[in-house]
Structure formats: structure tokens, C-alpha cells
Amino acid sequence: MERLHSLVENRTVYSLDGFELNVFETHQAAHRVQLRLDGLALTTMLRGKKVMHLPGRAAFDYLPGESVVVDKDELMEIDFPDACLCQPTQCLAVAIAPDTIRHTVDLLNERYPRAEAHQPWTLQQPEYAHLTNTPELTDTLGRLVAVSRTTDANKDVLASFTLQELLVRLMQTQARQLIFHDYARYLTTHRFAAVVDYIKQHLAENLSIDKLSAVACMSKATFFRVFKREFGITPVEFIIRERLGEAKRLLRHPLASVAEVCMRAGFNNISYFQALFKKYEGVTPGAYKKQMVAV
């Protein structure tokens, strides 16, 4: 097995109060490279591809736009199948002090508890350690890197606030993966799983906050507030993203028109649908459809 220091041509380290930020760049293909980080760490792929081998789970591809939460002193074994000098693999790793994590988790559980008391805030969720980054998590990571690199005399204070936000965003991302993607497992134990199921079953219909809050057995104001706190987005934002995901699926069908997709995905106004699609996807529904047909 190979050691990391012989393969990482460039490792940049920023040590601040409560955490250490590492930027790794690997310049040659390698297999089963061993790495441990001090403290629980959030790693994020920036460029290239890794294959991760973590204890107790099958190997998996690790790609840009994804993160992996690694426990303190957990041994990672990493393959770099495509790394080369002209196309290095880049990864970010934020090793976080236990006291920093404990303070943030305790604060959330005390002042901002989750919807279900039997599922408190925590980062220790091995089955949800491999994550697709949300826009909010990506944005916070970018700001943490920026503040770590600055020469501002107050950088430790600024970094502390940003790190706390990062931990919150990370737990919200895990909560999304738990409920948004694995909701069927929790229909009888988590009220928001029932809400997600209802939304998916009635996506093309009118989905009012009154109805969704009733499914959650909450007042409308409490439902809206706790949903956003738990997942980092509002119920309305979640519905929009689900409808856009359904629209993308329908647009792949060669015979489906944009107007038909608009209605079937739950958008009653084609101009509004086109504007939202362009905002989130960067292209119009018609252009997206042409891209899919061309592929």
C-alpha cells in the first residue's frame, strides 16, 4: 500500500481555531492509498475522481459535487484511477475539533430541536456519510475556504461563525438525504416523511401549505418554520425542485411537448414554468429537450 505523502504533490493546510482545512492535489494514478485525518472531517471532491474504501461498506466512486463525512481516526483507503500531472485530482478536507461539533449539535438540540424528538441533530450517521452537495452546503464551503485564506486579523472569529454554519448545512444535507430520498422507510416514524410522500403522490395537483401542515399534524406557521430549519429550504422550494425534476424526466420523452410537460409536472402557467426552469437549469425547457434528444 502506498502512503499519501509520496503521491500528493501539493498539500495546502490552513490551521484555525476549531478546525484544519486541507487542500490535496494528487498528480499520479495510485491505488489503496491510506489516509487518516485528525478529528471528524468533511471531505469534498473538487476535481477528478476517487474510489473510496471505508471500513464496513462497499467501495464507491467519489466525484466532484459530492462530500464524505469521515469519523475521527477512520482509515480511508483511496484509489486515484485517473490522476495525472495534466489532470490532477483535487479534494478539500475540513478536520473539525470534537468540542466545536459538540457545541453546535448541543445548541441545535437545545434551542432548535428537530420535528421528531427521537431523531436529534447529529453528524454520526454512517449510512448518510456519502452526500450529494446541496447549493447551500457548497456555498458555505466556498466561504470557509475564502475566509481561511484571508489575512484579515479577525479571520478566526469569521471562520468560527462560518464553520458553525457549515455544520448546520451539513446536518441539513444529511436530513434531506434521509427524508427526501429515503422517505418510504420512515413513513410511520417521521411526520416529514409522510409530507414528502404526499407531495410526490400529488405533484401535479394544487399543494397548499394548509394541506401539508395538516399531513404533518402541525400548525401552518410551525410546519413552515420547522421544515425550513430541518432541511434548509422551504416546503415551497422543495415542491418546485420536485416538479422541475419531474419535468426533466418528462422532457426526455421525444413526443412530449413543453406545454404538456408543464401541466403534468404541476405548473399551471407555461411562462412561469419556463422562467423557473431557466433559473434552475440554466437553459429553457425547449433547449433542454433538444439536448436530451440529441444524446
UniProtKB/TrEMBL annotation:
InterPro entries registered for this protein in UniProt: AraC_XylS_family_regulators (IPR050204), Homeodomain-like_sf (IPR009057), HTH_AraC (IPR018060), HTH_AraC-typ_CS (IPR018062), Tscrpt_reg_AraC-type_HTH (IPR020449), Tscrpt_reg_HTH_AraC_N (IPR009594)
Protein keywords: DNA-binding, Transcription, Transcription regulation
Ranges that cross the membrane: none
A Pfam family it matches: AraC_N
Domain HTH araC/xylS-type: 193-291
Protein name: AraC family transcriptional regulator
Protein source organism: Hymenobacter jeongseonensis
